[in-house]
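Build the 3D complex.
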Amino acid sequence: MSTARFDELIHPSTRLTLVATLAAADWAEFAFLKDRLGLSDSALSKQLATLEEAGYVSTERRLEGSRRKVRARLTAAGRAAFDGHIAALRDIVAGATAPGEPGV
Amino acid sequence: MDGITPDQARAALDAAGQARRQMAREVGLPRGYWWGMACGWLVLGVLGDLGPGWLVAAATLAFGAGHATLASRLLGGRHRTGGVQLSADVAGRRTPLVVIGMLVALVGVTVVAAIALDADGAGHPGSWSALLVAAVIGFGGPELLRVLRRWVRA
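Done.
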């Protein structure tokens, strides 16, 4: 069970969707993520760079034939942060639906 | 907490859940797998009508072994595209069981159709019933699997 911890870095909607997508995968290629999230190359690069800087995502560049492909995966720290963030969001919702109970 | 309202938290949870569900839809088997199976099905049907018993038995075993080998690589459903590998958690453990159940049901349909065609006096009932089921597998295999997975929440 993860400890609830709201994560400001993950919370913005695009980044949350990106991290949730990566959390469901062992790895995903740049082109797949770009298509799935409907982002431009530069927007996705920027989001991945931010997450990589925080240690939440790792990327690797592979040469496949003549094409260079970028593969991204969530690190253990990123997965823990995502799980903690989801737990924190659930706590907020639970606090609102159980008015008799103290909120988180 | 951090000025996030419950509604905002709910919307964020929905977005994360939606992303996960979309990824779960990646589970599946490549179209070529289904067409390969359809061809094997048809060959077995034709052999059942025209071939000697030993050949039918050998072909059935070969088909079963070939399918088992391929299926063991693909049935985890984690390689639909080269662009992503789903986590085992998302791919689910029930998908292989769904595929096996689907195959057993299709064998049943093939046998029942062959018996009905035979009773109706059709020539080569095994071939015709296999052709019918092969068409279902080839054209509708991925869709059938998707519907069955949804039914059993696999």
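The CA atoms of residues 3 and 13 of chain A lie 21 Å apart.
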